[in-house]
Amino acid sequence: MYSKCGDMMAAMAVFHRMPERDFISWNSMVTGFSHNGLGKQSLAIFEEMLVAGVRPTHVTFLAVLTACSHSGLVSNGCLILESMEDHGVEPRAEHYAAFIDALGRNRQLEEATEFIKDLPSRIGPGTAGSWGALLGACRLHGNIELAEEVAEFLFQLEPGNSGRYVMLSNIYAAAGQWDDARRVRGLMKEKGLKKDQAYSWIEVRSVKHVFVADDMSHCEADEIYEMLGKLLNHMSIAEDPT
Q: What's a Gene Ontology MF term here (predicted)?
């Protein structure tokens, strides 16, 4: 709970007070630091976990690889990926995708491309996540030429995934290539693809409630919008007390 709220000091305090720590509690700390952008701390907890003799899981490695990606720790990520089998954990597609993301964020796009091309010999055809990570890196660094090549692979691997078309269109738009952006949107329309609708959700008493923009489908929609109106009114008064 503390780590999800970004209070890692409180999370660590609870962790250190625990009389016994199983792999779940260790994973929670590794993941917590990772999700809060504290890559070095995530790595440190991971090392403590190994010293304590607790066996890491697929979840552990995914969290620590993600931490390396978001913190620019590419060399550490490479070593961790290579060490997985030493701990009895077979790397999965998502682990490779996290490492590809690390390479991409570090502008090592050529290395990432070559790494992906070798993946089918390791994990079979499940490389869409890695190509998707590389496409995201192309957007981050404005590499249109490589983005077009990667997008073509993704269109073949996931012909029904509208997000890949949207990503390429956004890359063109960011570069001011509006005709190309419209062309990709046109392809989506021809194929009957629509952009996935964004939504918000909240869990209350173990029940998940999902909302989209202008949503009136919830059984308590009237009460929700009434309360929202009151909150907006209070906010406007607080901003302008006169």
A: RNA binding
